[in-house]
Every structure is written in structure tokens, then in C-alpha cells.
Amino acid sequence: MNVILFSLDTLRADRLSCYGHSRPTSPNLDAVAAQGAVLTEYFSPHIPTYPGHTSMMTGRDIYTTRVTGQSGTPELCADVPMLAELLKRQGYFTAAADNLGRWFQRGFDVYEGYSWDTSAATSWRKAEAVLKPALSVIDQAAAQDKPFFVYLHFWDPHTPYLPPAPFDRMFYGGDEKDPANRSMDPVWQFENFKWYFNEWMPGVTDIEFPKAQYDAEIAYLDACLAHVFARLAEKGMVEDTLLAITTDHGEELDEHGCWFDHHGLYEPNTRIPLVLRLPGRIPAGARAPGFGRSIDLTPTILDFAGLLDPALRFEGSSMRPMLEAPRAGVFQTSVSRGTCDVVHMTENTWMKKRALRTHEWKLIVGLEPDIHGFPAEELYHLTGDPAEQVNMARELPEVTRRLRGWMEDHVQHRVAETGLPDPLPLQPIPLKRVGKMEQSVPKDEPAPPPADEKLRDGDFVGYERDNE
Ligand SMILES: [Zn+2]
Q1: Which of 24, 31, 361, 413 sits a CA distance of 20 to 30 A from 145?
Q2: What number of other Cβ atoms are within 10 A of residue 78's Cβ?
């Protein structure tokens, strides 16, 4: 069995039409989804990009990987294997189109990078730049006489949202600079990001515009993915090839004041898509209920490949029982059909937080004051308030205490299991200032000095740490 893993960076589940979005953002991806399974309750427990991809491709949580954030995070230990290393050991040909480098290139026979032209102010053709190495590694994989693992990393819905024509007007027909529109006012008042936003979308007054451009980026990406899907069909790589299409984290648009970025452990960032296609093994059109997590993906892929070795001791579990044809002909609806019923989440972005998500509740706890001045504890009743708008932490102290107890027990349990300290309080918040637009996407660069240096005058951050 072959494996092709797509990571479509920054793609939140609910903006895909196959997940119910009202705009037709993803017709080509929807067609693949119709041939396979869609996981409707799938989460990225560790955000942003580095921990998101590391948990996706190791099957392990941050307490094992120690990768909590972006720059300044330590390298992944050599004794924690990446999926490509595990499959290569089993005789697979491994090839990737990716630009993260560092430990993400471990185990690949072929690792092709890419970059795109960032000089244009209004249009970046990111997916086309990735398409070239993506098709190249697919061709190389098809020429092998052994099974292959191909990994493709696309970036289009990541900021700045600058879809090329005609996608740039696909979902927006108004005047985005209408002086009478005040809907962007709160965004322009957000000190930490306003300089970046001004470089990206100067003079925009209508908040519906960047939201439409986010969707347009997905539509542009989807059109480029059609070339990949067509190449797979041409090469006879549909049967006996597991396709896994997912992301590392989602994106906040205008839900919680974390505008157009992926910080915050709210649903838009943590509820992510997963489409799995394996003809004959995964029923077409299936909607798998129950929780799944990024840390479950590596064990799931190995399980379908017949290579899941208990000695690997993943923190995630195989989702194969959720996905294969059920005996009764329909999927059960019991919540216990997922790999877990409680998801433990962390972020080390602009803020340092932990969250615990059950089917009914989410508790978010800040380890340090955050850039927005959000409360240190937020409790949301997800079944009654799925948009996480009403913080009930003070109103329901018993629920808050119970969930907080579970959260702290989990951390203590993991610290005892690993024999290593909790990495989250030890690793500083890596993001302190907004860079230039062309640096917005992480690249394979040497780690900068630890981010606990003193801030200089003129660095715009919204808070200072207690010890500074
Ligand atoms: Zn990312």
C-alpha cells in the first residue's frame, strides 16, 4: 500500500464545502472526499505549525516531542522517529515537497523545496510554486518498484491572503475600501498586528473582504490540487494508495478577536479537516463520528499499511476501527467510537495556553497573561454555545474545577510517564513581534536566539511578562 499525505497549512474544516461551508471553495477536494471518509470531529491538539506537523508525523504529544512552538523550540530528538523514517525502515521509497526542513526532512529519500515570488503586493501564486516539486516527487514515486510515501505541504490559506485572479473576486463583489464601512475598525485598533495588516491590505474597511479572500485562497489551492489528483489517476495511483488530506491547524477569522491568525485554542484553530481515501478499504462517502486527533494519524497510516508495531508506543491511537466498513452497514453514532473522548490541547504562539475539550465542554487556561487580555480561565458549553462566545468559568466553578483537575492530572501523568519536565512553562513564548509580510510563512532557517531577550523600544507587543 502506498501513502500520500497532504498538509494544507492553516486550513480550517468549516470553510471546505465538504464540511458544510456555504461557498463552493473545494469542488476537487470534495470529489476525493466523496470517494473516501470525512472525519467530522478531528482536532489538532498542538498548535501552531511546528508542533502541529510534529504531532501529525510522530503520533506523539508535546510531552514526548518537546516541540511546543515555532522559533526557539528545540530540535526533535533523534530517538523520536518521524513517519517517513518509520516507513523508510520498512522498505518504502519516501519523497516530499516541503519547505520546513529541520527534522521535517528526516527519513525522506527525496526532499524537494520551493519558494514563491513575494514581490507582488496583491497576488502570490503559492500553490503553483508547490505544484512543481509535488508533481516531480509523484513522478519519482511512480517510477519505483517498491511502495512509496509522498508528503506534500501547501500553504495557500496562510496569511497574507492574496489569491491570484480570478479567485481574488470569486467570493467578493463589493467595495472593500468603502469609507462608510466601519467593520474593520476593531482590527485596525489591534496594535500587535495592525502594521502587518497595513502592509497586507492597506485601506480595507470591510471585514468581509479578508474573510472572502481566505475562502478564495482555498478555491485557488483546490484548483491546483486538481492537477495532483489528475496526475495520480494518470499514473494508476488511486487503487492501493491511502490518501490523507489534512492540515496542521486552522485559522481565526473574526470569531474571537484573534484576527486572521492561528493563535487561540478555539474551534476555528483546533477543529481541522481530515479526508482519507483508500478504495475498497474505507467506505466511500463515510462520515466518521467520534473524536480523532493529529496524533492519531501516524498510527492510523501504519495500521492501514499493516505496520503498526505496539513497541512504537504512540500517544495517539489508530483510527482504523472508526473508518473501515462497519459490520452493520452504517457507522455507529456512539461518542465512544473515536480514539478518545477528551482532547488535551496546547498552544505556544503569541500566547501560552492549555485546553481540555470534551464532547460538551472546553476549558482554556492561560499559563501567562495573553496579548488580548483574555481571562486566565475560559469555559465554554460547546453543545449550547458552539461558537465559544459566553465564558461560563465564573458561573460554573464546579465544572471549571473538575475540568482543570483532569487537565492537571493529565500533565502530571505525562510528566511521570516521560520522566521529563512539562515543556510548556519552560519554553518561552516565541512570537513577540510581527515580521514583514514576506517572512510570514516559516522557512527552513537556523533557529534564532532564544526569544527571551529583552524587547527593544519600538517592538510592538501587547504585554510584558511578569519577570521582565
Ligand atoms: Zn501552519
Answers
A1: 31
A2: 9
Tell me the H-state helices in 144-207.
Answer: 185-188, 191-200
Q: Which residues surround ligand 1, an ion (CB under 5 A)?
A: 9, 49, 248
pLDDT tens per residue, range 136-150: 999 999 999 999 999
Ligand 1 centroid–CA 10 distance in Å is 5
Class of domain 2-337: alpha beta
For residue 6, report the distance from its CA to the centre of ligand 1, in Å: 13
- The answer to whether 45 and 346 have CB atoms below 8 angstroms apart is yes
| Ligand 1 center to 69 CA (angstroms) | 11
Pick the CATH number of 343-426 from 3.40.30.10, 1.10.3720.10, 3.30.1120.10, 3.30.450.150: 3.30.1120.10
pLDDT digits (tens, 9 = 90+) for 166-195: 999 999 999 999 999 999 999 999 988 998
Ligand 1 centre from 264 Cα, in Å? 13
Domain ranges for the chain, please list them: 2-337, 343-426
